[in-house]
Amino acid sequence: MSQEIRNLEPKVLWNKFADLNAVPRPSKKEERVIEFMKNFGKSLGLETFEDDIRNVIIRKPATPGMENRKAIVMQGHLDMVHQKNSDTVFDFDTQGIDMYVDEDWVRARGTTLGADNGLGVAAIMAILESTDIAHPAIEALFTIDEETGMTGALNLKGGILQGQILLNLDTEEDDEIDIGCAGGIDVTATAEYDEEETPEGSVGYSITVKGLNGGHSGMDIHKGLGNANKIMNRLLFDGFDNFGLQIAEIKGGSLRNAIPRESVAQVIIASVFDEAFVFDMQQVVNDIKTELKTTEPNLEVVFEKLDTTPAKVMPSIAQYYFVRAMYTAHNGVYRMSADFADLVETSNNIAKVVLGEGKLSVQCLTRSSVETAKFDLANALTSAFELMGCEVELAGSYPGWTPNAESEILDVLVPIYEKQTGEKPSVVACHAGLECGLLGTNYPEMDMISFGPTIRGAHSPDERASISSSQKFWKLLLEILANIPLK
Predict the structure, then answer these.
(1) DSSP 338-371
(2) What cofactors does this protein use (predicted)?
(3) Active site annotation includes 371
């Protein structure tokens, strides 16, 4: 790892981030980072333990003169999203993140950076290790599996935490203070079908959709970004209706909370349509590129004739219903909030499509800050896929975080921000799934707030963290800790 990261200011923050990023920490495989964090707490002589689900809690007493302040919980999640460019050779299970400085940004070479939520975790670590930073009694809560189910926050039992105020350090705009967030639910449609033999006189093609930006399926869902699965289905729909195209295989997208950047399909058509098929498809591609030229200037669609034609394909009747169900299934913003300006209320991300060998799976993540609206969209998706014969499972539902405009810690944070920056912060609810909603289930009286440094492109290989913003965030955090309300 380049020493230039460790030399960035504030060094205490960036060095802890570098230490953390040297530890592989994919969601649901957090064993190494859990041990890393426990060893860190114990090395400081602080009370350190795991709960039943393997969240790590580290307690640090108040610094002299701060004993009369309310105890706080500083919270971040240990896991990170693993995404890489298709041409990047990298093993997330064994390698640390390869970081570098690009002007005001810290980036990773061809992979996600892990600033979500690694910078928040690093900030907490720096406070725990400090000997000269004023703060009240602290419980550092490091949750697991935030990115693929929030199971750490979901299974944190009541009675473990003693703090009265929670600082969640997991937002990505440094001029925003979050006081609410969306809930979510996984919608998964599955089906089986009897494959049929490829007709004689067929030719095989590989269709690849790539070059999309991708991004966070909550924070970026309103930006009009391309969804590789929806683009691929548009091509398959046209090819099927005009040339009798049949699908052998689809592999599109990866994680539910990442807008899919790539999709690859293997298909067959009658050889008599070979030349017309390629010409017609290119016209469709040109239309899509024109539509997305502003948000997706690097979109590529590649057609390659296969050396070996697939032996089996999806039957035409099953495919007829599949491509239409995919067309019908909503993707993107479903409704904007009527109560908060510019806030996405409800959305869906068609995140992953896998088809082949007689099996089909479509995975979605539906989000909403209104619980009833969340299930309304989930039911709409369910209906679309059940009409084609799929079984649909709704799972992993988690609640949103209801905004509290009377928050005591909000009254502390806003004037500090204004004094330090000369500007007013945006007090908002966000469309991402923060853990505060889940934590509040068992700790309903805890006063919660969320803030953090500016991060762009989270959940994609374009993820980057602003150096100047991290300095702003650190300065703000130190002043907040010094001004926690009296008991």
Answers:
(1) SSSTT-EEEEEEEEEEEEETTEEEEEEEEEESSH
(2) Co(2+); Zn(2+)
(3) no
